Amino acid sequence: RLHCLVSRKVHPCQSVKAFLLYNKSKDLIAVAFLIRKLKEFYDPSPRIELLRDSSGHIVTETGKIIFSATNFTDTLYYREVSYGEEFHDFDEALLYTLSRKMEKVEVPVTMPAGEFNDVLDYQGTAIIYQRNGSIFHTKRISSLYANNVGKVFESLFYLSSDWMYERRLVRYHVIQE
User: Fold this and answer.
1) Quick one: pLDDT band at residue 59, thresholds 50, 70, 90?
2) Going edge to edge, which strands form the sheet with 2-11?
3) How far apart are CA 58 and CA 67, in angstroms?
């Protein structure tokens, strides 16, 4: 049996639904999150992510691990994107690579929603290339997750810019059952 725990719009471009999955004995067996958000800043087509907990990991609908509370050595995500793939032409030159792994945050993290002590960083490195193959710039990005709260911070960027953008948790409410 699936029970919708919360459904709310958290940003003009993003909404979140949390679902609890129970078996016939009414034991909680899984928590799933449905996140609907814009694909990118410039692309109005929606992207749906189905995320679930799996033994201390957050995984996608295909089982790809995108967060781990225990694995701090392996690269959890790696992607190479060509100019042709991004701009819908036939140029096979590498546009960027993105790799992500988990890091422990050793100091308290302060956001508008409060101070968080037990925080993990889904840290990424993006290398953006020019069409001739030389490196244009390298970006470090973070997604900070606080224990029992979830994502409290995320850094983003445009490929063609040196600017970094940040999303910070402003407020939250944990539902006790």
Assistant:
1) confident
2) 2-11, 14-22, 28-38, 46-54, 57-59, 65-68
3) 5
* ∠ CA 106-107-108, rounded to 5°: 130
Structure tokens given for 150: 């979830």
Residue 94 has pLDDT above 60, yes or no: yes
Residue 23's pLDDT band (boundaries 50, 70, 90)? Answer: low
Tell me the C-alpha to C-alpha distance, in Å, between residue 136 and each of 85, 94, 157: 18, 11, 14
- How far apart, in whole angstroms, are the C-alpha atoms of residue 77 and residue 73? 12
The rounded distance, in Å, linking the Cα atoms of 161 and 63 is: 32
In this structure, are residues 132 and 121 in contact, taking their beta carbons and an 8 Å threshold? Answer: no
Residue 108 has pLDDT above 60, yes or no: yes
Q: How far is CA 132 from the centre of its chain?
A: 30
DSSP letter at 160 equals T
Across the chain, how many H-helices and E-strands are there?
A: 1, 15
- Give the span between the Cα atoms of 164 and 176, in whole angstroms: 36
